[in-house]
Amino acid sequence: MRLANRLALSSATIKRNVDLESRLAELEVELAVWKQAHATALEGAEREAKALKGRLAALNGQVASMESLMSQSLLILCVIDGDACVFTEALLRQGHEGGRQAAQQLTKAVADYLTSEDIHVLGQLSFWITIYYNRIGLTSALERHQLCTPEQLEAFTMGFSQASPRFLLVDVGYGKDATFTKITEHLQTYIRFPQTQRVFLAGGSDSAYASTIAALQGDGLVGKLAFLEPGDAGVKHSPRFRLPTLYVDNVFMTHQATPPSSATHHLPPHHLPPLNITCLSPSLLTGGLPTPRSPPSVPSPSSGKLIDPNLANSPPPCNEFYLMSCTKGGTCKYSHDYVLTPDQLATLASNAKKAPCNFLKNGLQCPYGDRCCWGHTCPNGSKCFHLSKGKCWFKGEGMHDVASPQMSSL
Q: Can you spell out the DSSP letters for 219-277?
């Protein structure tokens, strides 16, 4: 009886120990699971903390950048298509003073517009004007239509540029799309700057720069753009993109004008043919490049002075003035006051050919072509003694690829 009780107690004890061991194993597994979960959560928390710290640093950097930006000058840009938007004849004929007046009137018109938008409260504004144009083409067209002389245009551009160090005139040269390409790149680049608050485009109608404006619209940047056009002063909206258009009076030509002639004097001004600046090629640019026989370019005997062959005439006559056209005006260091005989003009032309054309000398195409008064080839040809010594002035490519006059006469 006593043995039976002990056996029963022993069996119960063994079973209890087995149950406890099983439960302990379950608890150890559960503890391991919780430890893994805790480690995973802790690792995630650490990663999140690092990410938040990085975001905070980035936000602090952005705040610092914004504070730095607000302390800098905000940009107001005006880009002008000088081939499509031509200044008025009244301003052009005033030369240097007309250029300054044009700059002042543009500045005032834009300032009034910005004041109405309260943009000035954001910080200090820096106003820039950039004009892209074909200088030789514009000079020729304006002279051919008797709107101004090359000297007046040169003085006008100088006056405009000197009105502010931020007013620039860029000669794009020849090419149908040269001005369009420059302005498109200008817009695409500068309108993306965070400092840029407004960009005024003059000479670019809805259709002219439609693809560029559409691209800016797709990037969400078109809100910075406004048109600047000739007409009655005020602000309207362009019909296609609904962009604000600032109309400025008495600065740009509102219609093209040409000199009276038998073919056109009976037409009203707004029906006269356009200047057609952008399509001009060097071979068509006769305006602004008078020949030595052009009466207006040579001083009359009553106002000029004669060359004395027995004296050193100082300053000597200006080659470009007598053989092409000099655009330096009053700043030219050579004289425009001589009255030259046909023989003296021929001698002047012959001597000028002994000096190299700076365009070809520097590897550029000469825009004047055969009408250039300077030498396009070395007078000594391929047998040039100075060329072998590396001292010839005619350094451009191909300037010695001709036979010398002595050789060609044999």
A: TT-GGGEEEEEESSSEEEE-TTT--EEEEESSSB-SS------TTTTTS-GGGSPP---
Distance CA 153, CA 93 (A): 8
pLDDT, tens only, 275-291: 333 333 333 333 333 33
- Block residue for tokens 């200008």: 186
160, 107 Cβ separation under 8 angstroms? no
Region class of 317: left (phi > 0), else alpha (psi between -120 and 50), else beta: beta
| Encoded tokens for 11 | 């069996």
* Cα 333-343-379 angle, rounded to 5 deg: 75
List 80's β-bridge partners, or say none. Answer: 131, 202
Give, to the nearest 10 degrees, the angle between helix 150-162 and helix 135-144: 130
Q: Tell me the whole-structure pTM to 2 decimals.
A: 0.49
**pLDDT score recorded for residue 105:** 92
Residue 155 CA to residue 161 CA, distance in Å, equals 10
State the angle between helix axes of 150-162 and 96-117 in degrees (0 to 180), rounded to the nearest 10. Answer: 40
